[in-house]
Structures are given as structure tokens and as C-alpha cells.
Write a structure and sequence with these properties.
By secondary structure, this protein is an alpha+beta fold. Helices cover 23% and strands 27% of the residues. Bound molecules: zinc ion.
Length: 132
């Protein structure tokens, strides 16, 4: 299951950041940016995240997902549109198929709340590695 590998990667990244920070005893919440085209089902991810957190510093942490709508731009005519789901990658203006995906493949941690109640820690915004 793709969501499980994503969840494990998120837990790994947060734990690593927590090790570098001082006095982190637990993680309250993790905010994750998830592109519409990243191929991740939010419900499945929430479920996997709960399992992946068990027995770690993140146990009981809340996963907040922020959806990013997919957007594409036509190279020949520069028209931009929301690709939707299933994604429409043919230009609605000219029918062209040379398109750039501007947004929608994001999969990264935005910030993390530690147990100390301080302001959210912004991680390095490294993308979650894709499955090989
Ligand atoms: Zn076009």
C-alpha cells in the first residue's frame, strides 16, 4: 500500500527532526501537503499514519492534510486550468497535449507541532521520497 510507505516516511522525517530539536517528548500534529495528483488517498493515509506512529514519538499525533489542487499550463497557448480528478491533461482551450503540470504532485511536510506547545516547527520541506 502506497499510503503506508508515505506514512512511514513522514514518521521517519519527523522523528529525525525531533532528535535534532531539544526536549521533544511527543509530537502533537503534523501538517502535510498532499497534491491531488500525488496518488495518495487521505483516508488511507490517516489510517496508515496512525499505525506508523504506534510506539514512536509520534504516537497519538494528529495528521492534518492540506490538499493541493492540480493545475496545468498549455505550452503553446499558455492557458492554465485545474486538471481535476481524473486529471485532464489536454488543453481545454486549444486541444494541445504539450502541458506543464504546475501543481498537484506535492507530498511534503509543512510543519510539526511538538508537545511543548510552542510555535509550529517548519521542517526543511523535503518532499517525501517516492516509492521505488
Ligand atoms: Zn492550449
Amino acid at each position: 500500500m502506497h499510503e503506508m510507505s508515505v506514512a512511514l516516511a513522514v514518521v521517519d522525517q519527523v522523528e529525525e527532526a525531533a532528535m535534532r530539536a531539544k526536549d521533544v517528548t511527543a509530537v502533537r500534529s503534523v501538517r502535510l501537503q498532499v497534491g491531488e495528483l500525488a496518488g495518495v488517498v487521505p483516508d488511507a493515509l490517516a489510517f496508515s499514519f496512525e499505525l506508523a506512529c504506534a510506539g514512536t514519538l509520534l504516537e497519538g499525533a494528529e495528521l492534518i492534510t492540506e490538499a493541493v489542487p492540480g493545475r496545468a499550463r498549455c505550452t503553446p497557448c499558455t492557458h492554465e486550468w485545474a486538471v481535476g480528478m481524473p486529471p485532464r491533461l489536454t488543453c481545454p482551450a486549444c486541444g494541445g497535449t504539450q502541458t506543464d503540470l504546475l501543481a498537484g504532485r506535492e507530498l511534503q511536510i509543512l510543519d510539526v507541532h511538538w508537545e511543548d506547545g510552542g510555535p509550529p516547527q517548519v521542517l526543511t520541506r523535503e518532499p517525501i521520497p517516492e516509492e521505488r
